[in-house]
């Protein structure tokens, strides 16, 4: 079987338009990186309907049309959305490609089987946390620092609210660092690809929204012990009685700082807060 021949990313830019960093447009042009991105999906991922957010000039779209049976691209730039429809007219006519013009935070997302995207960095957090609750495999490009925080373990400098929240929905792995030179125009920082493999957490929480708000509140006081963090952040967590939570919780947990509290320990403390603090 011969390797597919993909469009030249630089030629796609010439036919479409140069990216504008003011609008978070940094187009991937490194063929080797582009070729590897779909391969980072889990081996057993369903590729029947791939979602791409931020199609740009279509270099990644080109690969996804080979990797998947059907592709939906969400592109907010009207000129680029129109270019994608013209550039991939055959795939559109065959029903293998749908181009949705609009903001990924506003449009209705299709019932996709997996998502592979080079996300606009300015809204990457908001998009990621729209996608994660869908419980579908994701391969997403982020700024390196953001990716490292998503995948961090308790006790590391990068560990924080983002790590716990992302890990609540999926196993999160930083699978590849991508240099600035892989993009045109180049961003100011390095990037990284993250793979999110959906799974249920290894702990139980009384309510997802309450748990995530509780974690967010505690990390606003990450330099303080959990005892003080719980007491000082009731206006964020929504607790009515932080002192009652402190009185009922284990001392070994209250003496820790948020950066050293594992997701399972956060769940344990959140269960106490749900029971006695609301």
TrEMBL record:
A molecular function (GO) term: RNA binding
Alphabetized, the UniProt keywords read: Cytoplasm, Methyltransferase, RNA-binding, rRNA processing, S-adenosyl-L-methionine, Transferase
Name the gene.
rsmA
A cellular component term from Gene Ontology for this protein is: cytoplasm
Residues of the Ribosomal RNA adenine methylase transferase N-terminal domain:
33-200
- Lineage, top-rank taxon, reads Archaea
- Which NCBIfam families does the UniProt record give? ksgA, PRK14896.1-1
Name the positions where S-adenosyl-L-methionine binds. Answer: 26, 28, 54, 75, 103, 118
Kindly list the places in or outside the cell where this protein is found, as annotated in its UniProt entry: Cytoplasm
Keyword Disulfide bond listed: no
Q: InterPro entries from the xrefs?
A: KsgA/Erm, rRNA_Ade_diMease-like_C, rRNA_Ade_Mease_Trfase_CS, rRNA_Ade_methylase_Trfase_N, rRNA_adenine_dimethylase, SAM-dependent_MTases_sf
Q: Which Pfam families match?
A: RrnaAD
SMART domains referenced in this protein's UniProt entry, alphabetically: rADc
Q: What is its main location?
A: cytoplasm
Q: Which PANTHER family match?
A: DIMETHYLADENOSINE TRANSFERASE (PTHR11727), DIMETHYLADENOSINE TRANSFERASE-RELATED (PTHR11727:SF7)
**Family named by the database record:** Belongs to the class I-like SAM-binding methyltransferase superfamily. rRNA adenine N(6)-methyltransferase family. RsmA subfamily.
Asked if the record carries the keyword Flavoprotein, the reply is no
Catalytic EC class: transferase
Full protein name: Probable ribosomal RNA small subunit methyltransferase A
Q: What is the documented function of this protein?
A: Specifically dimethylates two adjacent adenosines in the loop of a conserved hairpin near the 3'-end of 16S rRNA in the 30S particle. May play a critical role in biogenesis of 30S subunits.
- SUPFAM superfamilies recorded: S-adenosyl-L-methionine-dependent methyltransferases (SSF53335)
Assigned EC number: 2.1.1.-
